[in-house]
Design a protein that fits this description.
Blueprint (H helix, E strand, L loop, with lengths): L3 E3 L18 E6 L9 H7 L4 E8 L1 H4 L15 H20 L5 E4 L2 H12 L3 E3 L6 H21 L1
Parallel strand pairs: 1-5, 2-3, 2-5, 3-4
Length: 155
């Protein structure tokens, strides 16, 4: 099984992933760029794909409450940032609905969640935006290693 990992069909050609049969599909892993306009990773995911699975993974480490924090929220994000994230996910889902699709919001360690999605949906193309933030660069490496290790075990 060969897998494409992208870092960056036009969005109007998105189809409902829940109705996808096996075929040429892509997963667009939304992270910070929670929009369909001006999104190179989404554009790339749709090129040559019959179906695009729009996915956001809620990492439990990001949302885990921190009882020692000065204000409510988690160790990595305050309450206002988490609220903004949830509102942005609703907005993204609304935009995708207008195109006949939906945002799939999944919870778990991103590498494990995305590996499972790739296997269960028979998808060979995972796309996401490049991020210069050290936290996201480390996450990118963990996800790639998890997926590649999983593929080695899968062969």
């Amino acid at each position: 099984m060969q897998l494409s990992l992208c870092l960056s069909k036009p969005a109007q050609h998105l189809k409902n992933p829940l109705m996808a049969a096996s075929g040429s599909g892509s997963i667009i892993w939304f992270r910070k760029g929670l929009r369909i306009h001006d999104n190179p990773a989404l554009e790339y995911a749709s090129k040559g794909s019959d179906f695009v699975y729009p996915v956001f993974v809620i990492d439990p480490h990001y949302m885990e409450p921190d009882p020692k924090a000065f204000s409510p929220g988690s160790r990595l994000a305050g309450l206002n940032r988490i609220r903004f994230l949830l509102e942005s996910l609703v907005d993204l889902d609304t935009s995708l609905k207008k195109l006949g699709s939906r945002l799939l919001i999944l919870r778990g360690e991103p590498g494990q969640v995305l590996t499972r999605c790739l296997k269960e949906w028979g998808v060979k193309k995972l796309c996401f935006e490049y991020d210069t933030d050290p936290h996201y660069q480390a996450l990118d490496i963990r996800v790639k290693v998890t997926i590649l290790f999983s593929l080695l075990l899968f062969i």
